[in-house]
Each structure stands twice: as structure tokens, then as C-alpha cells.
Amino acid sequence: MLRPSRAERSLVSQILVLALALFGGLALALALIFGGAFREHAQARTGAEIQTIAASAVQLLSDGLAERRREISVMVQSPTLWREGLDSAGVVALLGRARAVSPNSLWIGVADLQGVIVASTDGLLQGQSVAARPWFRHGLAGPYLGDVHPAVLLEPYLPSPASGDPLRFLDLAAPIQIDGRTVGVLATHLSWDWARQVSERVLPSDAAARGIELLIFDKAGALLYASGGRTAALRAAGQRLRTRPAAAAQPPMPWTERWMDNQEYLATLAPAGAGSPVAEIGWQVVVRAHSGKSFEPARNVLVVAGAAGLATALVLSIAAWFGARRLGSDLAMLTHAANRIEAGHAEVRIPPASSSKEVLGLSRALSRMTQRLIESQADLERQVAARTAELEAANAELAKQARRDPLTGLLNRRGFEPKAQLLFDLALRGGRPLCACMVDADHFKAVNDTHGHAVGDQVLKRIASCLQSRMRRTDLLARWGGEEFVLLLPDTSLEAAGELAEGLRLAIGASTTGAVGRVTVSIGLAQIAPTDRTLQALVERADLALYRAKDMGRNQVSSLAALL
């Protein structure tokens, strides 16, 4: 029979080892589970964020190139202006206004059929031959968009970009035709520093601290641009876009890869929509996040959770050792009592054991440990929610800057005015007709008051649909505000505009919308006048004509005669 002291030591040792193994293993397992879950959550959040950044960058790049291309298309489609001569004062003034509208267009010029510059902004390269330049050769045949290239002829005349990188351009060109005959080429050199401006708009303010970079590669995988002023350094290091792993074969799913600097990044490649300028030129926009910086909070959480768990396990093991001693004492007491009973001492009673309190204390300690881990997880989730809220706020800010009316899908006033200003300037310079048409839904307040704003929105969408279906490709349509729309009609006399407006009025009046039924519109027309100096003057006259139509009983077209 073992002595009580020896039995006590054996029991304590076993319980102590078991407690250390149990509590230590549980603490480490929970730390790994919660730390791993947080890392996966952080990776998913970062992946979603860089996907949004990459998609926004592709959209801004595509919109910028499409806008420049539309400006060139509008300018070359003005034969009246070009008949005055490729180097006329009107052409020079037009080039200056076009560059003022687009500050990133550092140079706009006109070359004759021999490739000699006859007109340009600030007179740069005037009289020089550009016959060997790709934009001239391709521009004779049709609209041309060239990839990024170093400045060749203009580098001595233009300032270096704000980024400190060498001066580089994108070339856009189109043939100038009169009566179907090509007479020259109009070209613009778009500063590649524009890419830096795009990245500054889409990247978060703490992108550098979090290791988030935006990279643009050409269709061959060569680096064109890197955010943070790292273009020159990465190009010198030979950075290229390598083939993505099979797991990331379907864009825009983020993938993890070790890049040429031997650092691991979470990266995403934003797809460009078919037919967009970015897809046409073959650019590939990549946003990557440095794994070490992006997931450092997750590693810190794992270390803290592990340390806290081990510390808690040590405390619990000590408590278990004391509990084992009490349990040993209880067993010794019970054994002593049993021996005395066996010896015939009938008065001896089995003493009540108190070790169940230690078991209860252990359960409470485990509950406290788990509660601490749950509180740590809740704190982490609050941090994730805060970061998500910041991202949603940034997306909301981008949405505010949109140039489209969210209800009808038409241009809003902000998107309408710069395009309309260009048409106005071309018409005024070339002496060409231009009409403004203001359209307003009759009794629209009664529709909202009677049927509710949801039905009123349906009416506005129906009117917008009718206007879109009957406008011409060269016309410019926008929602001016409330129930009012504006339509700009280039190369259209007041008489022709009146016929078009009457057709719009009849078409809208013939349509119906749900419970409202038939809704009519009043239309005001005005034609550009030689005394006009601003687009606003033309629009205000159209608005006056609209009020006159309202005063005359609504559901009709009213016009102010042109002064030409």
C-alpha cells in the first residue's frame, strides 16, 4: 500500500501535466483558429478593396481616352472651319480652346498632307515635318490611338512631369476631311503624367503605408507606370507582368505571388470591357498589396492571442495544482476515515469533500478565458467594420462625382456642360446653326402628389426613353434638373429643330405610364445668336421659350427666333 504523501505527489504531477497540455493546447488552438480566421477576413477585405481600386482605375483611364477621342472627332467634323484653311485664325483659336478644356493635352497640332505642321498650340513645331511619326502615318488612314512613348520632338519645349519621370505621351489622331477628301491630320499629345493623376484619385491616402501599389503594363507585359513615383526604379529592375497562377486564371479574382523584389503580394488584374480604349491598346492594370504590410495586423493578433492564451493556461495550471492538492487531501481524509471504519470505529463518519468547488472554479476559469478570446474577436470585427465603412465612404464619394443621372441614365448637368461648351464654341466660330431645346413635363407636381414619387420617377424615365429614342447621334441630351431636360442640336436650323421638337412632343404625348396614363410636355426652343458669348445665354433663351409655352397652355412647342 502506497504512503499518502507519495500518492499525493503522483496525483498532483499527473493533473499538472494534464492541465498544462489541455489548457495550453486549447489556448494555442483558439489562437490559431481566431488568428487564421482574421487573416482570411483581412485577405478577403484587402482583395475586395484592391479589386475596387483596379476597376475604378480602368474605368477612369477608359473614360479619359474616350473623352479625348470624342473631342478630336468633334473637331475634325467641322468642314466649314477647315475650308478657311488648316492654318486659319479660327483653327488656331479652336486648338487653344481644346487644350484649355483638357489640360493634359500638352500639344495639339494640324499637319498638312506632306506632314508639315501648319498650326499648333503655342506655335510649337510649326513648320517642322512629322511625316515619319506613326501618328501622322496612321492618322491619314483613320482615327488612331497610340501607346505610351517617350517625347521625341517636343521634349525641349515642354516642362517635365510633376512626378519627376521622363516626359512621355499618348498620341491620338484623326484625318481632316472636306467633302470626303482628306486634307490633313489633327493630333493631340496626351501627357502620360495623367496616369499619376488617375492613381492619386483611386488609391487610398494610406496606400504607401499599407503597401498598396497601382501598376500599368502594356500588352507585352512591360511596365508603363507604377504609383508612388516608383516607375523608373521598377523599370530599371526589369519588373514585368508575369503569367498568373492557375488559381487566378479568371479575372478579377485576386492571387498571391512573389514578385521580382522577392516580396509576396496579393494582386488583382482588372479586366477592361470589350471595345474600351484600354482593351484596344492592350493595357493591363494591376493593383497589388504587400502581404507583410497588409496582413501585419493579423499576425499581431495571432501573437497576442497566443501569448494571452498561454498566460491564461499557466494561471489555470497553477489553480489545477492547488485543486489537485485539495483533492489529494480529500482522498487522504476519506482513506483515513475508511481505515478507521474498517478497524471497527463505528462512530467515524465519512467527511464531506469540498473538491467540487475546485471543479466549479475551473469551469469558471475556462469560461473567463473563452470570454476574453471572444471579446478579442469582437474587437477585431469592430476594426474590420470600421475599415469597411471607410471603403464604403470612399466609394460613395466616387459615386457623387459621377457624371450620369442615376434615375434616367442620362448625362447630368456636370456631364453635359463641358461637351455642350465644345459644340457651342464650334458653332459660334464656324457660323453654324445650333439650337437648344428645353423639355419640361406638364403638371409633374400633380403626378407626384397624386401617385407618389415612385410613379413620378417612372414618368421621368419614360420621357427620357422617348427623348433618347428620337435624338440623333450628334445630339447631346441631359437631365437638367427635376422634371426638366435639355437637348442640344448641332447643325440644326430653328425650323428643323421645331419639327424635331414637335415630333418629340407627339411621341411623348402618345405614350402612357402605368396609373398616370398620358403625360404631356412643353418644349422651348432657341437658336444660337452672333451676340452670344456663353452657352448659358443660349440655354436661358430656350428656358424663356419654355415658360412661354407653359403660359400659352402647355403641351406645345414655343421658340425664340434666331438673330443670325
TrEMBL record:
Gene3D superfamilies this protein is in?
3.30.70.270, 6.10.340.10, PAS domain
Q: Which UniProt keywords apply?
A: Membrane, Transmembrane, Transmembrane helix
Q: What is its EC number?
A: 2.7.7.65
What is the superkingdom listed in this entry's lineage?
Bacteria
Which residue range or ranges hold the GGDEF domain? 432-562
Concerning Pfam families, the annotation shows: GGDEF
Q: Does the keyword Membrane apply?
A: yes
Q: Could you tell me which residue ranges the HAMP domain spans? A: 325-378
Q: What class of enzyme is it?
A: transferase
Catalytic activity reported = 2 GTP = 3',3'-c-di-GMP + 2 diphosphate
Q: Which residues span the membrane?
A: 301-324
Q: Does the keyword field hold Ion transport?
A: no
- UniProt-listed InterPro entries: Diguanylate_Cyclase, GGDEF_dom, HAMP_dom, Nucleotide_cyclase, Rev_trsase/Diguanyl_cyclase
Q: What is this protein called?
A: diguanylate cyclase
